[in-house]
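lol so apparently i was supposed to do this last week
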Amino acid sequence: MARVFHATAGDSRTTARRGSASGGRAGIVAGYLAPHPPHLVYAENPPQNEPRSTGGWEVLRWGYEELRRRLAAHAPDVLVVHAPHWITMVGHHVNCVPRSRGISVEPIFPHLFRYHYDFATDVALAEAIVAEAADAGLVASAMRDEGVRVDYATIGALHLANPAWDIPVVSLSANNNPYFYSDAALDEMETLGAATARAVERTGRRAVLLASNSLSHLHWDREPDLPEDMGVERPFNHHQYAADMELLKVVREGPTERLRAAVPAHIAAAQAETKAGSLTWLLAAMGWPAVAGDVLAYGTVIATGNAVVEWVP
Ligand SMILES: [Fe+2]
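anyway here it is w/ fe (ii) ion bound
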């Protein structure tokens, strides 16, 4: 099994970081759109992933390298991630397993992603999010079953943002199914985002949020002999690409308030994975800050659009 690293939530190292020279204040200090295509992890050849590659999707991975530099500068106590492939049909679930260990496998691309994970959960914050969400009227549940395999969208975003796994994690489920329903139900994500912010505040954490979503989401149904053959990597069509650019124009111009309308319009135009609500949750948790987003990279993966974006509220 690959060698992995973990830190215990609330240990002396992480506690010392709070209020440190990095800027000090508790609260949500940054949010990232952090898409999770398993191909990006495969292309990195980390020791935790079993398949080997010759690279590929470099521009997106360079964007993630910049994300990692910025993330380190923010010096968070905890990474809070919302991901679309931990689907819970009844309520919003929060992983409260103190230490999650196992193998995460991408069911469509098991030849690219079989990842050995081992990470610490910030259980106090996880439980606080459950409590705040329930108080706000959402169906919310603490997931305490060590046998539940962590999905690849959670693992993918967390690995790409912090491959050292040395920051504790809180992971939230997607209370929807992005593949079955035509209409996006984003209202609850506003409530969940606000509940997340209150829990971060109540526990005094310095948090960075990750929304594990791709943008346009139509993709090929055939794979080249070499999965990382960049000679065939391109947008699905011009319409999908143009829809992504229209959304990213609003992201780059700001303020985020404009995304309240732009995100649902983009979902309708491009089958965007943001339908799962991760991006809306992130922006709501940050209080829809009056800032522009910084697009660190954009690229396609099997034709889907993917952007790495930073917002600093
Ligand atoms: Fe996905």
